[in-house]
Design a protein that fits this description.
Layout (H helix, E strand, L loop, with lengths): L1 E2 L20 E2 L2 E2 L6 H7 L13 E2 L14 E6 L13 E5 L4 E5 L19 E5 L5 E6 L5 E5 L4 E5 L15 E2 L6 E2 L2 E6 L13 E5 L9 E2 L2 E6 L3 E10 L5 E10 L8 E6 L4 E2 L4 E10 L5 E9 L5 E9 L8 E3 L3 E6 L4 E9 L7 E9 L13 E8 L13
Parallel strand pairs: 13-19, 21-29
Antiparallel strand pairs: 1-4, 2-3, 5-6, 6-7, 7-8, 9-10, 10-11, 12-14, 14-17, 15-16, 15-18, 18-19, 20-22, 22-27, 23-26, 23-28, 24-25, 24-27, 28-29
Length: about 400
């Protein structure tokens, strides 16, 4: 196996690198590829880019922790500050077949800025066993090295704790269900539910910076949300703190584009009664009002009357500057335009069937148009419930004898 170093480009004197695979394996010629394309490379005939030897190599069957074959499956430099000094800028690499994670300490004896490789077969194992079946290494929160363990199906963290009794948690942040990271003004919800603490029994406390000003305290709890009405990008962060005061911070970027304004709209639904008789004709007033300061076009209005009601029809009257469809049959399904302070009123008539019993439940809702967000969604839906009280003939009871 081998580790190759690719110079950063553009760099003075840097050139295309040919690491010789499959003609070379490690520093030697591969006996199984004695074909013209390889022999010309072996002879350095000048027809092809010369083979560049590896930065570090080790034999499949030599060196520490020899196993049944080898395969390098992940590399990561440690650039944090929590590990002991000997690991600063060192290279961790994983050999999944050997179930070993190796470490190569950083050294630059000639001062050229390029790490010095250890002697071939000389990298020392950092740890091994079933916990080291890593298929990827990456530097994560706090600079710690994280590994994906294919065998156990886990993401593991290499953390350092010198004579301590508490280990810091690992914060995680993600969009909550139904939220998107980029789009028009909207309410964005976040979740830190994937945050973990390696110490059994620790309770985590969550603190949020939702406006991207670097100051926590905007919200608490495992989930949080905010209405974003101004164009721009926001660095949202969560700080997770354990029982002993150790903490970790994780953040994500959300973007607001296409600021069309806020749509503070509300809806009411009322038929003016609470008790009805079989055969009654009900008259609902469905009112949609723009409580905001911006004109909002294209609001969607819908009614959902009880399926037991029949002969449903409606008309609509709009205030000055507002618009709606004038009339229709069945439930309301309309798109309305509302100026600031404007409203539309639907008058919906429906027949209570002769065999009606129990309760008649009807509802209505209004939904802002795409690109608009309602800062108060508590009044976006309304309902009306009536109780069917029986036969009107005996509604007042019997005359006294």
């Amino acid at each position: 196996e081998e580790i190759n170093r690719i110079p950063a480009l553009p760099l003075s004197g840097a050139s295309l690198q040919n690491f010789g695979w499959p003609c070379f394996e490690g520093r030697g010629q591969h006996a199984g590829f004695n074909v013209p394309i390889c022999t010309r490379l072996y002879n350095d005939s000048g027809e092809r880019t010369p083979a560049t030897p590896p930065w570090y190599t080790y034999n499949h069957n030599n060196g520490p922790d020899t196993g049944s074959g080898s395969d390098i499956t992940g590399l990561a430099f440690y650039e944090g500050s929590l590990y002991p000094a000997m690991y600063q800028n060192s290279l961790f690499f994983a050999d999944n077949s050997r179930t070993v994670i190796f470490n190569i300490p950083y050294a630059d004896t000639d001062g050229d800025g390029i790490p010095d490789p250890p002697p071939d077969d000389g990298a020392l194992p950092f740890f091994d066993g079933s916990s080291a079946t890593a298929v990827q290494l990456i530097s994560g929160p706090g600079g710690d090295i994280f590994l994906s363990n294919l065998l156990s199906g886990r993401i593991s963290r290499l953390s350092y704790c010198n004579l301590c009794t508490n280990r810091a948690p690992a914060a995680a942040i993600a969009l909550d269900a139904g939220s998107i990271a980029d789009g028009p003004p909207r309410t964005i919800a976040f979740s830190a539910a994937n945050s973990v603490d390696p110490d059994t029994g620790d309770t985590l406390v969550y603190d949020w910076d939702l406006d991207g000003d670097g100051v926590f305290g905007d919200a608490s709890g495992v989930t949080a949300s905010r209405f974003y009405d101004t164009d721009g990008s926001y660095r949202v962060a969560v700080r997770v703190t354990d029982t002993s005061g150790a903490s970790d911070v994780q953040s994500m970027l959300v973007t607001v584009v296409g600021n069309l304004g806020a749509a503070d709209v509300g809806v009411t639904l009322d038929d003016g009664v609470s008790e009805v008789f079989p055969g009654d004709t009900l008259s609902y007033a469905l009112v949609v009002t723009n409580h905001g300061t911006d004109t909002v076009p294209g609001e969607t209005v819908a009614s959902v009357l009880s399926p037991s009601l029949g002969s449903v029809a409606w008309t609509c009257a709009a205030s000055t500057g507002a618009s709606c469809q004038s009339s229709g049959l069945g439930d309301v399904a309309d798109s309305v335009d509302l100026p600031a302070g404007g409203s539309v009123t639907y008058t919906i008539t429906a027949q209570v069937p002769a065999n009606a019993a129990g309760q008649i439940e009807s509802a209505a809702n209004v939904t802002p148009a795409p690109g608009y967000e309602d800062p108060n969604t508590n009044d976006n839906a309304a309902s009306d419930i009536d109780t069917v009280v029986g036969d009107r003939i005996f509604a007042d009871g019997f005359d006294p004898p």
